[in-house]
Amino acid sequence: MPTLIRLTLALSLLTPLALTAHADAAAQGQTRTASAKARPFHMTGAVKNSQGKPLAGARVGADNTVLDGSEVWTTTDAQGRYDLDLSKMPILNAWTAVAHIVVKYGGEQQTLTPEVDDTAAFLGKDGAIRNFTLKITGKTPNGGYYGALFSAHLGLSEAGEMPEYGDVEFTLTPAGPLIDGSKGQPIRVRQAQLPFEVPQGRYKVTARSLSGKGPIWLKARGGEYGPEAVLDMTYTAGTGMTLSVDMVHPRR
Fold first, then answer.
1. Mean pLDDT of the region 140-158
2. Cα–chain center distance at 194
3. Are 230 and 245 in contact (CB under 8 A)?
4. Distance CA 190, CA 167 (A)
C-alpha cells in the first residue's frame, strides 16, 4: 500500500478517538464545575495556608446574622475540607463564614484566624462555598499586619558600647517551621528599615556592623547577650505579634 494512503487511513482512524477524548474531558470538566456549586443549607469549602497546604483540624463556623450566639460549627478533615449542615435552622437563614485554628507554637497555644475569600452574608436556602486562607505575612484590610514586626533596641551602656544608627544589618533565620507549618527563608534587614514585618515564626537572629566596627551581640527578652539570639513572638496590644532584640558592641 502506498505510504500516502496508509497515512491518510491512520489519520482517519485517530480523529474520532481524539474527538471522543476531547468530549470526555469536557464532560468531566462540566461535572467538576457542577459539583462545585453551592448546595442548599450547606456551607462547604476548604482551609489552607498561604502556600496552598490543607489545614486539618481548623474550626469553621457559620455565624447567624439574626441571633447572637447561634453559630454552627464543624472541623476540617485531613484535606482541609469541611461541609457545614445548616438545615436545622432553616428559618433564621442569613449567615456569614468564620474560622479559627488553634496551634501549639513556641511552647504556647495560639489561636489563628484564617481569612475567608467572601465576607458577604448568604441565605441558608441558597447555601455557599467559602474557602479560607491562613495568612502569616502581608497587610490586613484594616491596615495592620498578618506577620510579626521585628524591632531592635540599643542595649544598656554597662552591657557594651552602642552601635551607631544605620550601621547594623540583621539576619533572621527561621528556627524551625513557621507558625502555619510552612518552611521559611532567611531574611536580611538593615536597622534603618525597622520595624520590619516578617512571617510569623520563631527566628535565630544575628547582626553585623556594616562598617566593620567589630562584632554585635544580641539579647532576647529575659536572655543574655551573645553572638546570636533566638526570638519567640509576643503579642503587643495595638500592634499585634512582635519580635524584639537588644544589641551592643561587646566590651573587649
1. 92
2. 22
3. no
4. 8
Q: Are 247 and 152 in contact (CB under 8 A)?
A: yes
CA distances from 36 to 46, 128, 163, 184, 216 (A): 12, 10, 58, 33, 56
Query: Omega into 195 within 30° of 0, i.e. cis?
Result: yes
Give the whole-angstrom CA distance, residue 75 versus residue 18: 43
Q: What span, in angstroms and rounded, lies between the C-alpha atoms of 124 and 109?
A: 34
Q: Which three cell numbers stand for residue 24?
A: 470526555
The cell for 149 is 514586626
Three cell numbers written together for 246 = 537588644
Write the pLDDT tens digit of every residue in 85-111.
999 887 767 999 999 999 999 888 999
What b/e readout covers 152-182, taking b as 16+ CB neighbours within 10 angstroms? beebeeebbbebeeebbbbebebeeebbbeb
pTM: 0.80
Cell of 189: 534587614
Task: Supply 109's cell numbers.
Answer: 497555644
Mapped onto helix, strand or coil, the DSSP state of residue 6 is helix
Distance of CA 228 to the CA centre of its chain: 27
What is the residue-wise DSSP string for 15-28?
HHHHHHHHHHHHHH
Which candidate, 239, 185, 250, places its Cα nearest to that of 217?
250
Return all residues near 190 (Cβ < 8 A) that are at least 6 apart.
166, 168, 169, 170, 210
